[in-house]
Amino acid sequence: MQHKATPDATLRKSLKARHMTMIALGGSIGTGLFLASGGAVAEAGPGGALLAYAAVGLMVYFLMTSLGELATFMPESGSFNTYAGRFVDPAFGFAMGWNFWYNWAVTIAAELAAATVLIKYWFPESHSAWWSLIFLAVIFALNALTVKGYGESEYWFAMIKIVTVVIFLAVGVLMIFGIMGGPAVGFANFTVGDAPFHGGFFAVLGVFMAAGFSFQGTELIGVAAGESENPRDNVPRAIRQIFWRILFFYILAILVIGLIIPYTNPNLLRGDISDIGVSPFTLVFEKAGLAIAASVMNAVILTSVLSAGNSGMYAATRVLFALAREGKAPRILGRVNRRGIPMNALLITTAVGMLAFLASLYGDGVVYNWLLNASGMCGFITWVGIAVSHYRFRRAFTAQGHSLSELPYKARWFPFGPLFAFALCIIVIIGQGADAFTGQEIDWKRMIATYMSVPLFLILWFGYKWIKRTKVVPLKACDLSSDASSDK
């Protein structure tokens, strides 16, 4: 039974077009680009890294067009679980919602841990717990004030990242042609050793996995659509720009790194969050003669980490709110305050994020590492759910006699797009722990840590299905009304 919202107890539609665009972009630029890109070039060579990021970028583009079609026709703050529940099975929607909430609640903890490491670049003797509390308080405040507060903070966080990448690309191009930082490097580093492809198929596959994690967060626009002023205009505008931004910010950045830094450079392998001095961005800036590169990049990556935590808090809160409204979480979590903020859901999400972070401070961090590993696969499960939901939605739409001209935004290349995204996500999920099997003995501990979120998702799905006796929704019975959020 659905809990009907009263007029004074609904989310506020305060996100403007510029907020939506930056949320879509900001979600796709973070530590995956600033740090993991260097390891990708080192592992698979410049050509292998480009191939992997291009393939994942294409998959993400199709996923976002699928989500764009759903979110413009039916803007919902609990988009993933609502769509899955309506067009596939209420039990599938239940599992999707809790999977997504868990993913981002634990991600908050991961970002808090990363932020404390980054801040110690300037304050090495300070205590981690105090910094984590300060960062958590800032993120909580941005989400507790108004939804516009979240939108504004994400706008400026994303702007910092964009400016950094644009400057990086400009400096990189000048270096490639010898205008800055010494003689022209041209394509010389694409022929070093066995470049452009290094390590063979499994190396490229490994980078493919890492690239998938780098792009996670782009789906946040689907959650934000429910609080957009004009989702039927703002969401398609943001979606249309994603392809070119993925091409510009990721593919060109990987190309510049591969051209300027040889994949044999040992510093590329050390691009860890605790060693910002060897971020590939830092290496390029330092090679160009910019001495303060490490400190500047540390500040930029700190804003990226806070942005990810901020987005995680927002997304997890909204999905928990939607689950409560659909009767799939305690009803009290479906209430909002006078400012249109689901405060109870926000408090629970904050508490879980903080508890997960505290687990990293005590003992040897085993609990925290297991939580983090379990959440790692959740993003890919969400992507699978988006592809399946869109495929079923489009088939239900035509089965019920609707014309595609009725859709405010139509995803191109249907059904190839969602099927391609579905297939690649399944390959990533299956192959994620392939290295656990490559040794003489199976690394059971690594395998369980990698795959544990898959059986958890299946338990949620089939457990709810068994208890509630739900069935797959027939295409002609799918609820296509755009003003409700209940599962039939």
TrEMBL record:
Keywords, ordered alphabetically: Amino-acid transport, Membrane, Transmembrane, Transmembrane helix, Transport
The family database entries (Pfam families) matched by this protein are listed as: AA_permease
Q: Start and end of every Amino acid permease/ SLC12A domain?
A: 19-472
Q: Which PROSITE patterns match?
A: AMINO_ACID_PERMEASE_1
Where it sits in the cell: the answer is: Membrane
Q: Keyword Transmembrane helix on this protein?
A: yes
Q: Does the keyword Signal apply?
A: no
Q: Which InterPro entries match?
A: AA-permease/SLC12A_dom, Amino_acid_permease_CS, APC_YAT
Question: How is it placed in the membrane, per its record?
Answer: Multi-pass membrane protein
- Residue ranges crossing the lipid bilayer per the database entry: 21-41, 47-64, 101-123, 129-147, 159-180, 200-221, 242-261, 288-308, 341-362, 368-393, 413-434, 446-464
- Give the top-rank taxon of the lineage listed in the UniProt record for this protein: Bacteria
Gene3D superfamilies registered for this protein in UniProt: Amino acid/polyamine transporter I
Q: NCBIfam families under this entry? A: PRK10836.1
Q: What is the recorded name of this protein?
A: Lysine-specific permease
